[in-house]
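> forwarded from #structure-qc
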């Protein structure tokens, strides 16, 4: 698990439609990534992907898959998928990561 410091989010016609189809706005995803969610490596995909899990400003649990792209001195965060977590996922997350829940709630 690591933390992420948000710098530049890369949006285009390739990743935004997929991220936006589950009801999250670009601004919500960017704000969520800037709140220091819990981050794990994603075992799926051909490029190195990361998973961010936690709660947004409204208290809803969010799941974002993203990759980091470095160009020169800048690192871009490229969201691949973003959605609200399902009830069963929230229960599992709370059970498996109680320290993350307490950190995110304060």
């Amino acid at each position: 698990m690591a933390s992420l410091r948000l710098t530049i989010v890369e949006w285009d016609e390739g990743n935004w439609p997929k991220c936006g189809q589950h009801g999250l706005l670009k601004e919500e995803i960017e704000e969520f990534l800037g709140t220091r969610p819990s981050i794990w490596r994603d075992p799926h995909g051909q490029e190195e992907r990361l998973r961010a899990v936690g709660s947004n400003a409204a208290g809803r649990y969010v799941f974002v898959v993203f990759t980091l792209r470095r160009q020169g001195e800048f690192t871009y965060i490229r969201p691949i998928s973003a959605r609200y977590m399902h009830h069963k996922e929230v229960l599992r997350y709370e059970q498996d990561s109680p320290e993350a829940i307490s950190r995110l709630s304060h």
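QC bot note: The chain has a mean pLDDT of 82. The chain has one domain: 8-97.
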